[in-house]
Write a structure and sequence with these properties.
single chain; 124 residues; mainly beta; 11 strands; 0% helix
Length: 124
């Protein structure tokens, strides 16, 4: 069974950190570009980071650059998102997704597999 399962979300204060995980099963994550998206209430889904399948190139949205780090562990078939210095505006449901084309597209229609999402709440 093919699936992506996120974990690691929670409730934190501004300035704190969280690490999200996205465990893949039924396929090899290393063969796909994978991205983290987030969606806050009333907002469109936003791609915040991706890692390509060919050369492991990473990219970040300006809103998280310098604070978030994407990585993956091939042996564990798991994607991670280290989130530091969290801000209230980072609060959203975070989802991971796998792109078979390998490029890390920002278009959600290019993604074949999606996780169910994990909630991140940042409050003062």
């Amino acid at each position: 069974q093919v699936q992506l399962v996120e974990s690691g979300g929670g409730l934190v204060q501004p300035g704190e950190s969280l690490r999200l995980s996205c465990a893949a099963s039924g396929f090899d994550l290393i063969d796909y570009a994978v991205s983290w998206f987030r969606q806050a209430p009333g907002m469109e889904r936003e791609q915040i980071s991706c890692i390509t399948s060919s050369d492991e190139t990473t990219a970040y949205a300006d809103s998280v650059k310098g604070r978030f780090t994407i990585s993956r562990d091939e042996a564990k078939n798991t994607l991670y998102l280290q989130m530091n210095t969290l801000k209230p505006e980072d609060a959203a449901v975070y989802s991971c997704a796998a792109d078979p084309n390998g490029s890390g597209s920002s278009d959600v229609v290019d993604y074949e597999y999606w996780g169910q999402g994990t909630q991140v709440t940042v409050f003062s």
